[in-house]
Amino acid sequence: xxxxxxxxxxxxxxxxxxxxxxxxxxxxxxxxxxxxxxxxxxxxxxxxxxxxxxxxxxxxxxxxxxxxxxxxxxxxxxxxxxxxxxxxxxxxxxxxxxxxxxxxxxxxxxxxxxxxxxxxxxxxxxxxxxxxxxxxxxxxxxxxxxx
Length: 147
Description:
The chain has helices at 27-35, 55-68, 72-79, 84-111, 113-142. By secondary structure, it is mostly helical. The protein has a domain at 17-111: Tyrosyl-Transfer RNA Synthetase (Orthogonal Bundle). The N and C termini lie far apart (52 Å).
């Protein structure tokens, strides 16, 4: 969900870059966006029921749970009663740990256009090999003369 509005999805079309984490964001940008994510003034609840009517708290704890591979209830047991500042720091660390390897690989690939071309050519070759027998059969059914 959006970091600026817990009732909306993260979207590349949102005019605010602060609403989402991009896979090309560096560790500093990820941390800044999470630290600036919208929250409410209340402490984090200790139970999932306490998230009702608190879309931003629900959103951030859901993101943390997904990144940490735990349930939202476990997230709230761990951080419930605490302030968002402490929780956001842990969320930022978790997000950076999960996303930084992906970002590094994307940057490596984007910097190596020859590798991108090789990957695309390999994919096209494999797709043609799969599609060729099907296209031959379709042309035969339709009545096209084989070339």
